[in-house]
Amino acid sequence: MHTSPGVLLASALAITIIVASRLHSRRRRNAVLAAQWHSLQQRRSTGDGHLLQVTQVYQRARRGSKAVVTWCDTGLRQDAWFWNWHVPPGAYLLVNAGSGYGPHSHNPNVLYVHPTQVQTWVPAQAARAAERQAA
Questions:
Q1: 3 state DSSP class of 126
Q2: Can you tell me the distance from the alpha carbon of 38 to that of 60, in angstroms, rounded to the nearest whole number?
Q3: Which of 31, 12, 16 lies closest to 134, judged by CA?
Q4: Is the pLDDT of residue 134 over 90?
Q5: How many helices (H) and strands (E) does the chain have?
Q6: What gap in Å lies between CA 65 and CA 67, rounded to an integer?
Q7: 3-class DSSP state for residue 123?
Q8: Mean local confidence (pLDDT), 13-19
Q9: Quick check: 115 pLDDT over 90?
């Protein structure tokens, strides 16, 4: 069986359109993520909270998430409880929250974060998209 040149040309054109569409979508998504990162950094520069990254989520419960966070300014790690939110791993959050005693882990320094204390947040990919855009 022999395929006609017209069928081959149409197939090649369809594949080219699909690839170009995916590249355009990826570029658009990266541009949106980079803009989110820049917006977060702009808000951070006004003193509107402290930046942290969710390093690991180790428990999801009905009323929230237990996680390990890393403070971006110091690199220090801390256990955290996010009330009423299943926080995404890797996310960056600008927060105004306080620490207290964690009765379940007997940890005297658990960060308690209520949803109203999260000023803004971006997914982990936002920082990488901004780095790629700057390069």
A1: helix
A2: 29
A3: 31
A4: no
A5: 2, 7
A6: 6
A7: coil
A8: 54
A9: yes
- As a whole number of angstroms, the distance between CA 33 and CA 51 comes to 17
Beta bridge partners of 66: 59, 81
DSSP string, 3-20: --HHHHHHHHHHHHHHHH
Q: pLDDT of 36-92, one tens digit each? A: 999 999 999 998 899 999 999 999 999 999 999 999 999 999 999 999 999 999 999
Contact 100, 110 (CB under 8 A): yes
Would the pLDDT of 1 be above 60?
no
Rounded to an integer, what distance in angstroms lies between the CA atom of residue 55 and that of residue 32? Answer: 23
Helix runs in the chain, H state only? 5-45, 125-134
pLDDT at 27: 83
Three-class DSSP category at 42 = helix
> How far apart, in Å, are the Cα atoms of 27 and each of 10, 14, 31, 55?
26, 20, 6, 26
| Alpha-carbon 98 to chain mean position | 22
- Find the radius of gyration of the CA atoms of the chain: 22
